[in-house]
Specification:
about 375 residues; eight-stranded mixed sheet
Length: about 375
C-alpha cells in the first residue's frame, strides 16, 4: 500500500485517473430540532403507524456511496510511482527474537485476557469470533500462529500477497519459510523499484519472486495457482468485496488458505484514517458531521500540516474504502470459504470515547449504528477455500 508521505504528490494523478470520487447527490432530510448534525425522517409503516427514527446525514451518505462503489472494480494506475515512494525497502532474512516470542505466546496471552477484554467491552458483539483483542496487541501473531497450526498438514509452496508494495515483512515472512514461489500484486505500479528489489529477494532467499500490478478484485493469475493468500491492511480499501472473495477463491487451490488482517473499519473510531487529527472528541466525526462540514475538515491544512504524516486525508479524499462492517466481511467470506478463525480487535479509543462523550455516543446509536460496528476496529481472519 502507498505510504503517507507519497500521497500529496499523487493526489492530482489519482483524481484524474483511477481514484475518482463518485458524484453523489446529497440527501437532505427534514430537520426535527435534534441539532448536533442530526436530522429525522418521518417513516410510515404498512399498518398506518408512524415512527420517528433519528438519522445522521453523513451516515446515509456513506451508505449511498458504499452501494455505488461496491459495483465497481478498482482501476489500475499505469504510471510508475517509484519516484514518489523513495527508497523504503529493507531486507530481513532473519526473524527477530521478539517477533518469534510474540507469535509463540500470543494465543495463550489473548486466551487469558478474554475476561478482562469482555469486561471493558461490556457489550455483546453481533458477530461470530474466536478471540477478542484490545487494539492490535498480539492479534495478528495469534492469527498467524493459528494459520501455521491449521495448515501444518497442507504444505505451502506458492503464496500470493496482494498489496505487496515494496516487500515488507508480510512478504519476507513467507520467503524465510522456504516456499517455492511468491507473487505480489499492487494496484500501484512500482516497476522500477521492483526491478531492483526482486533480484535481491531471489538471491537472498533462493526463491522465485515476482511482483506485478494488479487488483485483488481482478487477480491476474490462472485459477488454482496458489496455496495461500496473505494480505495486511488491504481489504479495508477494497470497494467490491464480492469480486474480491470470488477472485481469491478462484486462484486458490481447493482447500487452500487465506489470512487477512484489515482495518480500521469505517464505522469505528478514526475509521476514515484521518479524523482523529482533530482530537479524541472528533473520533467519530466522519459519521457525525454533515457532508459539507466533513469535506471542510478533510481540506483543513492548518490541522494536517502539523501531523507527523500531513497526508492523512489521502484515503478519505479519494473515498478508497469498502465502507463495510465486520459482519458484512464475514458474510462475504462465508460464500466461498470456511471461516476457520476470527480475531475481533476492539478499539480502546472507541471505548474511551463511549465513556467520555456519552451524548455523541447516543447520537451514533440512534442513527442505527450498532456498538459492534462502532467498537470493532479490525479483524484478523483465517479462511480455507471450500
Amino acid at each position: 500500500m502507498l505510504s503517507g508521505h507519497d500521497r500529496t504528490s499523487l493526489s492530482s494523478l489519482l483524481t484524474t485517473r483511477a481514484c475518482k470520487a463518485l458524484s453523489v447527490d446529497r440527501h437532505t432530510l427534514i430537520a426535527a430540532g435534534n441539532g448536533g448534525g442530526l436530522s429525522a425522517s418521518d417513516i410510515w409503516f404498512g399498518n398506518g403507524q408512524r415512527r420517528w427514527t433519528t438519522r445522521i446525514v453523513r451516515v446515509l451518505e456513506v451508505q449511498r456511496r458504499k452501494d455505488s462503489h461496491s459495483k465497481c472494480i478498482q482501476a489500475l494506475i499505469p504510471d510508475d510511482i517509484s519516484d514518489f515512494v523513495g527508497h523504503v525497502f529493507a531486507l530481513h532474512t532473519t526473524e527477530t527474537l521478539k517477533r518469534r516470542i510474540s507469535r509463540k505466546i500470543a494465543l495463550p496471552v489473548l486466551t487469558v485476557a478474554q475476561p478482562f477484554i469482555r469486561a471493558h467491552l461490556s457489550a455483546r458483539l453481533a458477530i461470530q469470533y474466536d478471540l477478542l483483542a484490545l487494539d492490535e496487541r498480539f492479534a495478528d501473531d495469534a492469527g498467524l500462529a493459528t494459520l501455521l497450526r491449521l495448515q501444518r498438514r497442507h504444505p505451502i509452496s506458492r503464496v500470493l500477497v496482494p498489496g505487496c508494495y515494496v516487500a515488507a515483512e508480510d512478504v519476507q515472512f513467507w520467503l524465510r519459510r522456504g516456499i517455492r514461489r511468491l507473487d505480489g500484486i499492487d494496484v500501484y505500479s512500482l516497476q522500477r523499484q521492483w526491478s531492483e528489489i526482486i533480484p535481491i529477494l531471489r538471491r537472498s532467499y533462493r526463491t522465485d519472486v515476482n511482483f506485478t500490478q494488479g487488483s485483488i478484485e481482478a487477480i491476474p493469475y490462472q485459477g488454482e495457482s496458489f496455496d495461500l493468500i496473505v494480505s495486511s491492511a488491504v481489504l479495508e480499501h477494497v470497494r467490491n468485496l464480492s469480486a474480491m472473495v470470488t477472485e481469491t477463491a478462484r486462484v486458490l487451490v481447493r482447500g487452500g488458505w487465506a489470512f487477512h488482517s484489515f482495518g480500521p473499519l469505517y464505522y469505528c473510531f478514526g475509521g476514515d484514517h484521518c479524523i482523529t487529527a482533530f482530537g479524541p472528541a472528533a473520533g467519530y466525526d466522519h459519521l457525525l458531521l454533515d457532508e459539507s462540514e466533513y469535506s471542510a475538515r478533510l481540506r483543513d491544512r492548518t490541522v494536517f500540516d502539523k501531523q507527523p504524516d500531513p497526508n492523512l486525508p489521502f484515503w478519505a479524499l479519494h473515498e478508497q474504502f469498502s465502507f463495510a462492517t465486520a459482519s458484512e466481511y464475514l458474510k462475504y467470506f462465508e460464500r466461498d470459504f470456511h471461516i476457520r478463525f476470527v480475531i475481533a480487535k476492539i478499539s480502546s479509543e472507541g471505548l474511551r470515547f463511549r465513556e467520555n462523550y456519552r451524548e455523541k455516543w447516543v447520537k451514533l446509536l440512534r442513527a442505527g449504528i450498532s456498538e459492534t460496528d462502532l467498537l470493532v476496529k479490525s479483524l484478523s481472519v483465517v479462511l480455507q477455500r471450500r
